[in-house]
């Protein structure tokens, strides 16, 4: 809650950094899916077109909701942190080398992202499916200890966040705050 009382410049910097990191990591994930047989020029063109399409779609959404403090703290920043935390696992899934620096850079966003229940649940399910798919379908037993540590930390924090008694109390209170919400 201390962030909500911050100076407007903090929000501008936070939104700018989150938007930049979101675009960078979406492009890094897209680059994992582009075949290695393409030349660097073709890869660059594909990634440029993808980023242009994404920016057209997000432009109206961005200025309407994500720049507002609650939109950025509830959606943009945790979504960006989710993408940053998923990047090493997507690299692992695509049989690309996983850098220790990517895992280290994913720890802090993973910790922050785990406090948002939806992002934590997406992370836990998605990464668990990657491990299960590689282990039982592809029969690849390679295991990276750094990825496991990241998965374990974020999973424990996400479970604590989801199972916290305050979530149920908040849901009950929201029924009184927003009477039309009750169905």
Task: Summarize the entry for a quick read.
With 183 residues, this protein is mainly α. The protein is built from seven helices and no strands.
Can you tell me about this structure?
This protein has 183 residues and is mainly alpha-helical. Helix content is 79%, strand content 0%. The chain is built from seven helices and no strands. The relative contact order is 0.09.
Question: What are the defining features of this structure?
Answer:
79% helix; 183 residues; 7 helices; mainly alpha
Q: What oligomeric assembly is this protein in?
A: single chain
For the largest beta-sheet, the strand count, sense and barrel status come to: none
The average pLDDT is 77
Number of strands: 0
Distance between the termini: 29 Å
Q: Looking at the structure, what is the overall shape?
A: globular
What is the radius of gyration? Answer: 19 Å
Beta-strand share of residues? under 5%
Task: Enumerate how many helices there are, as a single number.
Answer: 7
Helix and strand run = HHHHHHH
Structural class: mainly alpha
Helix content: over 70%
């Amino acid at each position: 809650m201390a962030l909500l009382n911050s100076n407007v410049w903090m929000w501008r910097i936070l939104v700018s950094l989150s938007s930049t990191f979101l675009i960078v990591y979406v492009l890094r994930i897209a680059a994992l899916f582009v075949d290695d047989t393409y030349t660097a020029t073709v890869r660059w063109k594909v990634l440029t077109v993808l980023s242009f399409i994404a920016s057209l779609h997000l432009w109206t959404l961005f200025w309407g909701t994500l720049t507002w403090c609650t939109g950025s703290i509830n959606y943009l920043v945790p979504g960006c942190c989710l993408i940053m935390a998923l990047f090493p696992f997507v690299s692992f899934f695509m049989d690309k080398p996983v850098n220790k620096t990517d895992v280290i850079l994913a720890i802090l966003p993973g910790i922050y992202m785990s406090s948002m229940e939806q992002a934590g649940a997406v992370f836990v399910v998605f990464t668990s499916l990657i491990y299960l798919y590689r282990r039982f379908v592809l029969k690849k037993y390679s295991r990276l200890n750094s990825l496991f540590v990241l998965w374990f930390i974020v999973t424990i924090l996400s479970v604590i966040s989801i199972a916290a008694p305050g979530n149920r109390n908040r849901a009950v209170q929201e029924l009184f705050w927003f009477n039309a919400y009750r169905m």
